Amino acid sequence: MDLARLLATYTHQHSHRAWPRQRLLHECLRAAIRDGTLAAGTRLAASRVLAEELHVARNTVLYAYEQLASEGFVVTDRRGTVVATLVPLAAIAAVPIATAAIASRVVAPRSTAAPRAVGTAAGMADNTAANTAASAASGLSQRARNLRPLYGTAQRMGAFVPGVPALDQFPMALWRRLVDRAWRALTPAQLNYGDPCGEAELRAAIADHLRAARGVVCDAGQVFITDGAQSGLDLCLRALADAGDTIWLENPGYGGALAAARGAGLVVTGIDVDDDGIAPTADDWLLRPPRLVYTTPSHQYPVGSVLSLRRRLALIDAARVAGALIIEDDYDSEFRHDGAPLSAMQGLAPGAPVVYLGTFSKTMFPGLRIGFVVVPRDLAPAFAAMRAQSYASGRAAEQLALAEFLRSGQFALHVRRMRRLYRQRRDALAVALEKHLGAVATVHGASAGMHLSLRLRDQELDDAAISAQALAQGVVVNALSRHDTHGGSGWKGLMLGYAQVPAAEMDDLVRRLAVVVHLAAYNRRQPAAK
């Protein structure tokens, strides 16, 4: 076997990979062994000889041989390195088939019908083609099969992706200094697994911030640090409900909450949203009483409604009577553009049955991956025990840096700057929407947050198709109908995040979106072809 030629061919085929020479040789030999080019029993050249032949250092060859030996592709003896005898993949795959065939012969009753031809190459190929999708799905739980598709990378940045702040406006230099200071102050003991409830300094700083800024009634012992709002929601559903319990979700609502509820085995009931937020009826409480109620009262996701004070108090009272717990996801609460912000539901009534969720992904940056849960005082010990058994905390430096960011007043200063910036961008978007789409759609949810919704006047229009066509024009808008949580919500329209978009670019982007929307409306008005 001419290994020099083999390596040259492999190098040409994989020229796009920036591998070092030693890895390239290892990958080449492994591929040749796996596909049978280097058959079992083949004795490879001595490392010194092969190094000279390939014009590489001997250590390069030794590395490749040692890696192959550790993986079981070659064995070494006194005479050198020999390709090992491997079990062919086809033979491994055939074992379950053969076992099933034997079992069927043992247990199947005799038949008088003519026997079918089985095991032929053609028959096996047909079965494989027919069952590929089913086989892939059979390895997944029902929860996994129910998940909605994720957006691609291109759909997570730019206009008008929701939920992503103006990352270029974050004070990176300040944050680097805080993180560096935290790292310098760490002790060796703090490099170990940390408190599963979170660093004490951060828990106390968050409690102080929430009392002052959101009216939350809590102390540090009720605050639990998580890897974000979704992580906090998963924790709550596992801790507060059993499989088969009912959870109310807003309809339309947050897809992450739907995924978490299904993952926890809960029965999902969608409660319709209107201009004042989630709107359960007396029949809902009577016929479909919940164990949990999930809501985004500060800026409903995706519609953008703000839950009115009257509705907040009514929801708390009804939940107390029903023995239910409210999960308050205080999404976008920091960015109130019109009017005074409403206090968090958690602090509106003494002993309110509310678990409060928050995150720094929207106020700072998503990659930080720090959120929190505030639980009622009597549930704190159980939450602490659960965290101790299921979560190993880390990232002490980042948590301590965030605690200083909060305590120093820099967080509040950053939020104020972003509030002014987002208000300017919201205003520019609202003007452009009225100019280009005011005749066919109405704006909802512009009073707060980092996104608004555009509700189509013609609710027969296909907002999902409009979303797909807009994407082809470089504009990302989520279809409201894709956020249905329970059998249709009656909302057809588009969700537009504006935090990342400079005000000067709004008009051109909305104009491009308007072309798509007006074309869809025009096509719908045309009589169907006979």
**CATH topological fold name of the largest domain:** Aspartate Aminotransferase, domain 2
* Rg calculated over all Cα atoms: 30 Å
How much is the average pLDDT?
84
Strand order of the largest sheet: 4-11-10-9-8-5-6-7
Query: Can you identify the CATH superfamily of the largest domain?
Result: Type I PLP-dependent aspartate aminotransferase-like (Major domain)
The first-level CATH class name of the largest domain: Alpha Beta
Beginning-to-end CA distance, first to last residue: 69 Å
Helices, by number, come to 18
Could you give the count of β-strands?
15
Labels describing this entry:
530 residues, alpha/beta, Aspartate Aminotransferase, domain 1, 8-stranded mixed sheet, 4-stranded antiparallel sheet, 12% strand
What features would you describe in this structure?
The protein has 530 residues and is an alpha/beta fold. The chain folds into 4 domains: 3-83, Orthogonal Bundle (Arc Repressor Mutant, subunit A); 89-110 and 118-139, no CATH class; 156-163 and 414-525, Aspartate Aminotransferase, domain 1 (Alpha-Beta Complex), CATH 3.90.1150; 171-408, 3-Layer(aba) Sandwich (Aspartate Aminotransferase, domain 2). The chain is 45% helix and 12% strand. It is built from 18 helices and 15 strands. It has helices at 3-13, 21-34, 47-54, 58-70, 89-107, 121-138, 142-145, 172-185, 200-213, 229-240, 255-263, 282-287, 309-322, 380-390, 396-407, 410-437, 463-472, 506-525, and strands at residues 43-44, 74-77, 80-83, 223-226, 246-251, 267-274, 277-278, 292-295, 325-329, 354-359, 371-374, 441-444, 451-456, 478-479, 493-497. The protein has an 8-stranded mixed sheet, sandwiched between helices. A 4-stranded antiparallel sheet has the order 12-13-15-14, covered by helices on one side. A 3-stranded antiparallel sheet has the order 1-3-2, with helices on one face. Helix 3 crosses helix 4, helix 10 (229-240) runs parallel beside helix 11 and helix 16 (410-437) crosses helix 18 (506-525). The protein is globular and about 85 Å long. The termini are far apart. The relative contact order is 0.10.
